[in-house]
Amino acid sequence: MTLDPRLNAYRNDLADEQLRGQVHATRYAACQPAWVIAGRTAVRAKAKLIRQAEIVTYYHYGEELRVFEITEGIAWCQSLFDSYVGYVDARDIELGLAPAPTHYVATTACYAYEVPDLRSFSTGYMPRHSPVRAVKTGLVTRGTEYVQLGMSGYVPLACLAPEPPRSPDLVAAAELYLGCPYLWGGRSFLGIDCSGLVQAAFRDIGVTVLRDTDMQRDAIGEPVSPGSLDDLRRGDLLYLPGHVLIYAGAGAVIHADGATMTVGRDNLATLMRQRGLKLADFVVRRHSKAQER
Question: How far apart are CA 282 and CA 226, in angstroms?
Fold first, then answer.
């Protein structure tokens, strides 16, 4: 069986030492631990002409990585969050173990500041779920309390929580992103794509799922075969080639739509008529934890 190169680090000239005996490469390398120090860093499938190469996903602040090679300022990495492999700007990562977090970004996102003052220069954007380590607390400016994150700046305490944020179910989690702009490869409120929305929503109910639609379609929950729209349950995932929608109940779906370029709520029956679709065109997946509310 051919290993998926999106989830396994191998090329003709170099491969993850852990894949020795499974793939052939000129040489193998043990990984170096690293973590993301930028708010988000674009991950690309190719290193050549990296600024023009397609962005396939993003790694987020605090995300732990396995690094196999750094050449000419480009790092070839694998995320420990969802195993996605790709090339990033080496300036956006730091070699070594990530510091143990004291807090997590619990709002849809937050900004870090140069000094503990929301009117000061913003040093970066941190997506929801980003793990952070406070080195100093109790800093108050005009009634707003901040924590210092070392060299990463200052973040309002109101944006943080001591535990990863949670939503009551998958639909409630997806609703946090309504109105968010569509962005191919995006995983955050600054921009998100359809499978990124599903991944972010599942993360909010404490479940890690794979990144791309084809991976999710084959791995999340169990396949079901609804006879009609009335058989769908809140939280069901409806997959088309290259697209996924979340059934929100009462005939509605939530999805990051490349046609409208936003995360929106649509009436499923109307959408199917407009796009010439039948229920049989969808692969429907059902995950028990998605319908807990």
Answer: 10
The residue behind tokens 């973040």 is 155
Locate tokens 């997806």: which residue? 174
Q: Both tokens of residue 22?
A: 């499974």
Position 151 scores a pLDDT of 82
Q: How confident is the model at residue 293 (pLDDT cuts 50, 70, 90)?
A: low
pTM for the full predicted model? 0.96
* Tokens 């969802």, located at residue: 82
Domain count, the chain: 3
Cβ within 8 Å of residue 218, ≥6 positions away: none
The SS3 of residue 206 is coil
Q: What percent of the residues of the chain are helix, what percent strand, and what percent coil, each to the nearest 5? A: 20, 40, 45
Range of the domain at 273: 170-291
CB contact at 8 A, 15 and 23: yes
DSSP label of 155: E
Q: Is residue 179 part of a domain?
A: yes
85 contact partners, CB below 8 Å, separation of at least 6: 5, 6, 7, 8, 9, 76, 77, 78, 79
Amino acid at 266: D
Distance CA 161, CA 138 (A): 15
Alpha-carbon distance of 98 to 94, in angstroms, equals 8
